[in-house]
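If it is no trouble, can you show me the amino acids of a protein and the tokens describing how it folds?
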Amino acid sequence: MSRSRSVVFFLSYFLYFFTFWMVLAYLPLVFKTYDFSDQQIGFAIGLNSLSSILLVLPLGVFSDCFSPKRTLTLGAICFSGYFLLLVILKDFYSVCAAVLLGGVGAAAIRVILMSLYLKLIGSTGRAKKVAFLHLGGYLGFGSGPLLGGYLYESFGAAPMIKGAFVLSMMIVLLSLLLEDAPPVVFSFKDYKKDIKEPDVLFLIAVVFVLGTHFGAEQSSISLLMKDTIGLHKKEIGIVFFVLGVWMAILVPFAGILMDKKHRVFLLLLVGLLISSCFQFMTPFASTLYGLLIIRMIHTLGDTLAILESDVLTAHFFPAARLGGNSGLIFCIRTSAIFVFAAFSGWLNQVWSYKMPFFVNGIMVFGFSLIALFYLGRAFRRS
């Protein structure tokens, strides 16, 4: 792949995360101003993932058998339409419909952009090349909420969402510049064979647990920062910015580490273990700086886990069917996000905004320990 094509992928991934988190970081706060209950907020945020569950797998298979580039463009149009509808709609059921559309678009961009990139980069130095794409994502994750917080604090929610809409249209234009991949003949048996491998089944289990972690955060982290810790919207933006830049600094080193010989799944599980410990610690933060320290250590684990999950997806699945199989992995993760986002909304309603972090931290920590023990036994046998 040429350097210019790599830059187009980088910019597309950056803009996707920039616009996605520019709005999502504050969406629970926006919904609060609409007088949605905590349970309704958790459900609405979770719907973003539910629509992905329903359609991302067919979209991934469709991209393999037809055209990843054209499918990506269609997904980008849906993603932009989501922001446009959020500007107009205010009642709960209409907002839920808009979030469903946004979930379809976001999933299509996330899955097809990554799978198309993996198809084109080859297997040499794969982790470093994937880390380059993640670098764009983390910079977008950090800078999007920073701009969103400024716009929301200074001008209100509508200008923030309109800004995301304008920027998201650039993803549509960039998708037209991407290189396409040749289609394959659809075979259900081939996809079924791909997912029967023991390593793939283990990856699916780990990715599901990783998804619960994101569900807790997407429905609760902004509310925890604002209503429990007492941060202003601009300070919330600063938190996301610092964490995004921190993860962008970490990910190239993680990519170099993963390209060296290491035991499969080890860094993924170690990342989950670190992440879970500091997920549990997050509610103990009482100041901006205390929260930043805890979340920086937490996102060290996130960086390892997210990067290796994408690298292992490319490692275990044939390149020609990466669209459908990446869609499956993403579907598993978003299923977990929906379940735990909705569950976190109930926990927030009944207990407090701290409880999802306690529950999720304990759950992921226990799973990581058991999985590491299983991995160690399997390694000794081999």
In short: The mean pLDDT is 82. The first helix runs from residue 3 to 24. The CA atoms of residues 209 and 364 lie 6 Å apart. The domain at 3-381 is CATH 1.20.1250.20 (Growth Hormone; Chain: A;).
